[in-house]
Amino acid sequence: MGTWGTGIFDDDTTCDVRDDFLDYLDEGQSAEEAGRAILEGYLDEFNIEDDLEVMSLVFIGLAAVQLDKNCLQEHIRTQAIDLINRGVDLELWEEADDDDGYEKRKKVLNELKQKLITFKLKKCLWLFPF
Q1: Which of 36, 87, 112, 117 is exposed most, by the fewest CB atoms within 10 A?
Q2: What is the reported pTM?
Q3: Residue 54's CB: how many other CB atoms inside 10 A?
Q4: 38 near 17, Cβ under 8 Å?
Q5: What are the CB-based long-range contacts (under 8 Å, 24+) for 100-105?
Q6: Model confidence over 56-95: pLDDT tens digits?
C-alpha cells in the first residue's frame, strides 16, 4: 500500500474505495448497492480478521466518502467507529516508526470519528444529471 500523507484519502486503498464508490454512483447504483459491491470485492480478496489493517482502511474510506455525500450507512458508520477506537489503522503508523505522522494520523482519525458519531442522515447529496 502506498501512503503519502496522514489524511483519510492519503493512501492507495482509501483512494480506490472512494473512487469506486463514486463510480458506482455515477453508474446509477444506490449508496447501499455501491457499498455492498465494494465490501464484497475486498472481502473476496481479504479476510476481515487476518487482514484487519487493510479492511480498516476500506471501512474508514467508505465511511468518509459516504459521510461526504450524506448517505452514510449505519453498519459502515459503526464498523468504522469501532475500527478507529481499536486503533487498527494506527498500527501501520507505529510500524513506520514515525511519531509525528502517528500523532497527525491519530488526530485525523479522531476528527473523522467525531463526525461519524454526530452524523445525522439528511438527504443524499448525490444528484444524477438527468
Answers
A1: 117
A2: 0.87
A3: 17
A4: yes
A5: 101/6, 104/6, 105/6
A6: 999 999 999 999 999 999 999 999 999 999 998 887 777 7
Cβ atoms of 21 and 38 within 8 Å: the answer is yes
> Cβ contacts of residue 86 below 8 Å, gap of 6+?
none
C-beta atoms surrounding 68 within 10 Å = 17
pLDDT at 130: 38
Distance CA 64, CA 68 (A): 6
d(CA 26, CA 16): 15
> 3 in helix, strand or coil?
strand
Write b or e for each residue in 80-105: b if 16 or more Cβ atoms lie within 10 A of its Cβ, otherwise e: bbebbeeebbbebbeeeeeeebbeeb
In sequence order, the β-bridge partners of residue 3 are: 11
pLDDT digits (tens, 9 = 90+) for 44-64: 888 777 888 899 999 999 999
Give the 3-state secondary structure of residue 11: strand
